[in-house]
């Protein structure tokens, strides 16, 4: 089951927004401002690289959004083609034999 990336307030780190994904937290480094690390509260592992499952989740979500946009564009084109065909039929009716 996919998890969502959530943001919340975390006083322990002196920051307003912390991204979380499951047990992972994205936290700004105190010693390197602007640099973030990832901390797993269950395993107590810290790492600089985004956890694989988090990155894969974001890739899936990006792909879903792209596919959704592509479906909408195809639908828009289809509706436009139907409207053009209807307009053409009204402007140039076919011979009813």
Automatic annotation (TrEMBL):
InterPro entries on file: WAC, WW_dom, WW_dom_sf
SUPFAM superfamilies in the record: WW domain (SSF51045)
Region of interest: Disordered: 57-97
GO cellular component: nucleus
Gene Ontology biological process terms, A to Z: chromatin organization; positive regulation of TORC1 signaling; regulation of autophagy
Coiled-coil zones: none
Subcellular localization(s) per the UniProt record: Nucleus
Annotated CDD domains: WW (cd00201)
Keywords: Chromatin regulator, Nucleus
Primary localization class, coarse: nucleus
Boundaries of every WW domain copy: 24-53
Single GO MF annotation: chromatin binding
Alphabetical list of PANTHER family matching this protein: WW DOMAIN-CONTAINING ADAPTER PROTEIN WITH COILED-COIL (PTHR15911)
Protein name: WW domain-containing protein
Organism this protein belongs to: Caenorhabditis tropicalis
